[in-house]
Amino acid sequence: xxxxxxxxxxxxxxxxxxxxxxxxxxxxxxxxxxxxxxxxxxxxxxxxxxxxxxxxxxxxxxxxxxxxxxxxxxxxxxxxxxxxxxxxxxxxxxxxxxxxxxxxxxxxxxxxxxxxxxxxxxxxxxxxxxxxxxxxxxxxxxxxxxxxxxxxxxxxxxxxxxxxxxxxxxxxxxxxxxxxxxxxxxxxxxxxxxxxxxxxxxxxxxxxxxxxxxxxxxxxxxxxxxxxxxxxxxxxxxxxxxxxxxxxxxxxxxxxxxxxxxxxxxxxxxxxxxxxxxxxxxxxxxxxxxxxxxxxxxxxxxxxxxxxxxxxxxxxxxxxxxxxxxxxxxxxxxxxxxxxxxxxxxxxxxxxxxxxxxxxxxxxxxxxxxxxxxxxxxxxxxxxxxxxxxxxx
Length: 393
Ligand code: HEM
Known about the structure:
Elements: H1 6-15, H2 34-44, H3 86-93, E1 102-103, H4 105-116, H5 120-134, E2 142-143, H6 191-204, E3 208-209, H7 211-228, E4 233-234, H8 238-252, E5 266-267, H9 268-277, H10 293-306, E6 312-314, E7 320-322, H11 324-331, H12 336-350, H13 358-378
């Protein structure tokens, strides 16, 4: 879905012949607007997969809402609509990511580290998982919101390059501040849901969103989806991401100058800024030290154990069926290999091996290799898979 802002953009681009690759690859760009040139570059530059960037060297707390990264509302030529992820939305609104909301996975890995001090391992894990199922491997671009022409020419079907808002590949049900896709809008900030987060924080977090409040919010949202969404799905991969995302605000939205318990207590006005307006508070400093897979795993386990709900799915409203296969995996501890297998299999489903040729095949192999870099930091026992062959970096 294109946002309100997309309409004038498309009309303007159509008037100048810039839509759909009408500017020939060899044509002069003289006299074209920034938006047209950006569009031209994005629709013609087929770069394929690239190695993932490494970890950043300095992970100290530092000012990130600085003069180079001011919050700006969307301009008429920017098509970024509401996005499922308040973290990436905020990074785009502050220019740590391209303000268009379309970025390469490399840009995302660097931006989440630089802007919020997300640990390199989890940044690579989430970003390349999302890139594999929601991004364009030909142009090496991913929309953090909806499908957009800015990601360039798409690979052949059944591939979907719909961006992070695409339901049921990465995006899933029972989000804290976004509704379930079944009800028609899985990406806009939802005031009613945010108020539930506020209430839980007041009741269980002493007026702050902390890990105790997170446990209640997470549990309540699961119960709500079980009770209302006949198509509620809460197994792999959503089971893992839903719990991790409830930890993220505590890890990444709290000012890095806070110490002790206050370093893990999120003020509710600050929370609203991130969740609703994609905006850091004035003078915001990113957290002190990277927060990676291990720390996320600890938070995630706390939330799972606080109110255990087995992985499963609804067969009609209120009829939650346990996914026995996935339950086995989780009873043996959180298994990153299962997540890895899910995304490898999903990629192969979207890009059947015989059809993936040339630069597309190379890009998929590269992105899978990038994804595996993070998997192997978490577990040495998952065998690497090479459906598209090996890459040599
Ligand atoms: C590293 C790349 C990232 C990717 C690809 C990504 C992707 C996503 C996606 C697809 C969702 C939607 C899941 C759903 O609710 O259905 C989501 C939600 C979320 N993301 Fe991100 N994310 C990333 C980084 C971050 C960062 C750095 C933060 C910082 C706090 C963050 C915070 C959140 C939160 C809090 C939610 C849950 C929103 C809610 O439940 O209302 N994410 N993210």
